[in-house]
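User: Can you predict the 3D structure for this chain?
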Amino acid sequence: MIVMSEAPWGRFYNAAQFLSEPIQNRNRVIGGRFKEPEVYRPYLRAYPGICPCITATERDGCASDKRRASRFYGRRLTVQECAYHQGFDIPSGWSEKPRDFRGTDIQWLRQQYEAIGNGVPVYMAQAFGKVYT
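Assistant: Here is the predicted structure, written as structure tokens:
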């Protein structure tokens, strides 16, 4: 039987472990040999009362999937709100579609949600790097 915090290919972590005041439940499996990062709490798949994972399709919202942030808040999240949960601010340059982008404004917005939702939270990645400094 596989313990949820460990698997043959790596260890499970939740983004909520990496902040003193968690802002997102986001599970990731980290494999390979690495020093253990410092965490504020032991691993749980989901901590109650904390926003679920920000997804790449958060712009679309979802009324039925309880694991999505939009369901947790009861509405669609803005790009800025999604970025907050991932641990960064949106650069001002993202507000306008680049001239060489060949899609529509809506497609540009969708690209932003995808870029944010497919990332690893900054504070989580930073904790793994910090143990090597």
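Residues 77 and 131 are 33 Å apart (CA to CA). Residues 6-130 form one domain.
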